[in-house]
Amino acid sequence: MKIITAVPLTFLLFIPATLQAQQEKQIPEWCKPLPRPEYKSLQRVLPDEPWFEVYKVAAGVFAIYEPHQAEETISYLIVGTKQAVLFDTGMGISDIHKVTTKLTSRPIVVLNSHTHDDHVGGNWQFPFIFGMDTDFTRKNAKGSREDAQAEIASDQICGDLPKGFNPKTYATKPWRISHFIHDGFTVNLGGRKLEVLGTPGHTPDSIALLDRANGLLFTGDTYYPAPIWLFRPETDLDAYVNSAKRLAALAPELKLVFGAHNNPVAEPSVLPRLVTAIQAVRSGQGTVKPAGEGKAIHTLDGFDFLLAAAKKEKN
Predict the structure, then answer these.
(1) At 116, phi and psi to the nearest 5?
(2) Residue 203 has pLDDT above 50, yes or no
(3) Global confidence as pTM
(4) How many CB atoms lie within 10 A of CB 139?
(5) CA-to-CA distance for 269 and 1, rounded, in angstroms?
(6) Taking Cα atoms as reference points, which of 251, 254, 243 lies closest to residue 271?
(7) Total Cβ atoms within 10 A of residue 115
(8) Looking at the predicted structure, is the pLDDT value of residue 233 above 80?
(9) Residue 148 in contact with residue 121, Cβ under 8 Å?
């Protein structure tokens, strides 16, 4: 005989509520607003890619977005008639080289907007890498395990890591600079030229890419629509403001601006506003909120800047 034991209703209600709370707790806060609505208006390609989301954002330009990691890094493949430039290679968590071979058969040169680990993770997969001639670049080309491991902490990942990925061995692998470049260097892709603009500030080796003929500017981490990191030891705030001014001066001749995190496409009018905002923040305007040890987010006119917290004077 089957015996049915009565279970209090309150207990039945408690179990799902507890599980739901646990599940919500496991979802990082930054992950909850995804997918970002701005992507709905963009043309998605390679929809079966499990880690990357790839969008065609202009003629011959593909945004390769990593929505499953907190940096939400965006790399750009810019294609000409003879060759292509890959502007950043992302986290190195999945195979960005495989993605690029699906998008173009032309030879690919890698340029990095700067050499923080979230922008150089796939560099080792490519034979041709042009790098800025700085000590910061040379140091980061050696790779880093510690920085990479911090990027895959539980609060940094949204969803599943790629199949075959081993978090225990994950590191930013060393890569070789095949040619040193400088401000004003031009890459001819065939039917398209890209100008390298030195934009130091966020890092000493930060650059932007200008496709002048098509009115396209790739800003790297000098501008993106999220808290802009300006707190690390390698940051130079004076240099950053000067670089932002340089990009803002280009706004009248631009059609689109492409940042390196969160959302790819912005209007050129954002650049003069960026200059006004960072200058105002440095003069003490805007709101300030603590953001972890030694950091604070300064907010003004829709811009967020993550700066080193002001040190308190000792009595």
Answers:
(1) -60, 150
(2) yes
(3) 0.91
(4) 12
(5) 76
(6) 251
(7) 26
(8) yes
(9) yes
Tokens of 241: 């403001």
pLDDT above 70 as % of the chain: 90
Strand residue runs (E) in 124-240 = 129-132, 179-181, 186-188, 193-198, 207-211, 216-220, 228-230
Q: What is the DSSP pairing of strand 129-132 with strand 108-111?
A: parallel
- Tokens describing residue 127: 């034979």
- Residues 57 and 83: their CA atoms lie apart, in Å, by 18
Give every strand in the sheet of 193-198, ordered side by side: 186-188, 193-198, 207-211, 216-220, 256-259, 265-266
CATH no., domain 37-284: 3.60.15.10
pLDDT tops 80 at residue 41 = yes
Q: Which of 127, 207, 133 lies closest to 175, judged by CA?
A: 127
**Residue among 116, 104, 114 nearest 196 (CA):** 114
- What are the residue boundaries of the structural domains of the chain, listed by start? 37-284
Cβ–Cβ under 8 Å, residues 296 and 288 = yes
The dihedral of CA 235, 262, 273, 293: what is its sign? Answer: negative
Is residue 235 helix, strand or coil? Answer: coil
Q: What CA–CA distance (Å, rounded) separates 109 from 125? A: 11
Question: How much of the chain is in helix, strand and coil states, percent to nearest 5?
Answer: 30, 25, 45
Q: What is the pLDDT of residues 136-182, one digit of tens each?
A: 999 999 999 999 999 999 999 999 999 999 999 999 999 999 999 99
Q: How many whole angstroms separate alpha carbon 262 and alpha carbon 296? A: 20
Q: What angle do CA 192, 196, 200 make, to 5 degrees?
A: 155
CB 113 within 8 A of CB 208: yes
Question: For tokens 């040619």, what's the residue?
Answer: 179
CB 252 within 8 A of CB 293: no
